[in-house]
Amino acid sequence: MIEMKDVWKTYNNGIKAINGIDIKIDKGEFVYIVGPSGAGKSTFMRMMYREEKATSGTIVINGKDVGKLKNKHVPKLRREIGVVFQDFKLLPRLTVYENVAFALEVIEESKANTRKRVMETLSLVNLKNKARFLPDELSGGEQQRVSIARAIVNNPHILLTDEPTGNLDPETAWGIMDILDQINNRGTTVIMATHNKDIVNTFRKRVIAIDGGLVTRDEARGEYGYEN
Amino acid sequence: MMKQEVNTGMKIKTFGRHGKEGFKNLGRNGWMTFASISAVTVTLLLVGVCLALLLNLKAFGDQLESDVEISAFIDLTAKQDQQDELKESIENISGVETVTFQSKEEGLDNLIENLGDNGEVFESLKEENPLSDAFLVKTTDPQDVNDVAKQIQQLDNVQDVEFAEDTVNRLFKVLEIARNVGLALVVGLLFTAMFLISNTIKLTIVARSHEIEIMKLVGATNWFIRWPFLIEGILIGIFGSIIPIGILIYGYYYLIELIANRFPTLFIDLLPVTPFVYQLSGLLIVLGVIIGVWGSLTSMRKFLKV
């Protein structure tokens, strides 16, 4: 479960990104975060995995106060949260298999376990047959699926996706949504920041709108609500 | 859900990975690595030579110092009771340890012996010994030699006082200057080497920033991320110490052989090869590793941000 209480974030350069957010997201929910560019969506997500620290207020994830976490305990938090970006962030010199395995290797998972988990995850994202390919040899949608596989390979409780369909054509984007839905159905909380009106309006889920660093709307089966 | 624990201890497999990554890092910026290793090499070579020199000079100085003896030559006219009185007066001077009588015959014998082969020319002097009887005075503390010698000079029936004052003092002056110059040079070079290593590692960190970002994101521990860079620094330090150690061991053996063969009469006693050069080699490796670790820590603090 994720709970934010009166969270504020002002960057060192004076920009006020988040101005008092209270929110609760239950385990297993699927939530869209919508809002114009620069509204604070990314900051909202980055605070959850402690890439940014809130200036004031508390953020509690699975019972842990993220803001009070000691630096050396941040890695443990990050193992409970998978993150997917618009630009995939794959390592170009590693194969699909190696890119996904990398996430387990660096948290010192055993080799046998790694192999098993990577293959399972690759079949979940329908890329088992491309395990030996390099990222360059894949389409955008396939690359995003690799990056999703990497984010979920160690079974995190929460999956944060920041504009996962931003670089993809509509059809491919639906493929990604299909996978995110499957992941959500296994019990993983999925939070997706997006500008994709069609997806939000068709694939109805909870919508949290952020504007000017504030929650302006929070609807159980909401609509996108912006013209873009 | 998979059970997860952040493992702080390091498994052998993990250490193997860090070692491999550390080696890979060396190859990533080949020329910078080469420059860093060269800097460590030059630094350690200088440190090694300076240390070998200084430690030998120091040992030599200590040897001389402990040998410092005052020869108080007795007036030829002094009678036996005056000599006894003089001996007692000398013994009463504070700082004096022993006073031994040396007849002029013994004095000449010692002189001839000390001069080795060249001493033979003095053999003829035995007929008409130009030396006087003397008291050989040892002080408890070599530092007191000067004072004691002055006091003896003022006693009655003392013809002359001799001791190796100038030699000893000069040697210590030289030693001190050499030490200071060496120290300044070494410190300067240490910083240069450290700076080069830190720059090399900075380049590696930049080259791997993408990977590091993902490692942080998926929850690799900070030390897991740091180790390869630390190992890179340590490897540069160790590789940098190989040539200096080789030169030092070979050079020292050669020097000792050279002195033994070509200048057997030279009364310089170098410190024996074992354990000296091996201790020195060990010290150089340790120094290399320290510079390496220092360089990588500096770079990590600035650029790794974990």
Could you explain how this protein is built, in words?
The complex is a heterodimer of chains A (228) and B (306). Chain A is an alpha/beta fold. Chain A has one domain (1-217): Rossmann fold (3-Layer(aba) Sandwich), CATH 3.40.50.300. Helix content of chain A is 32%, strand content 25%. Chain A has helices at 41-48, 74-78, 96-105, 111-124, 140-152, 170-185, 197-202; strands at 2-10, 16-25, 30-34, 56-61, 64-65, 81-84, 158-162, 189-193, 206-211, 214-219. In chain A, strand 7, helix 6 and strand 8 form a beta-alpha-beta unit. The radius of gyration of chain A is 17 Å and the shape is globular. Chain B is of the alpha+beta class and 306 residues long. Chain B contains 9 helices and 4 strands; from the N terminus they run H-H-E-H-E-H-E-H-E-H-H-H-H. Chain B has helices spanning 12-28, 30-67, 80-92, 104-114, 145-153, 165-207, 209-217, 222-262, 273-303, and strands spanning 70-74, 96-102, 134-139, 158-162. A 4-stranded antiparallel beta sheet of chain B has the order 2-3-1-4. Chain B is elongated.
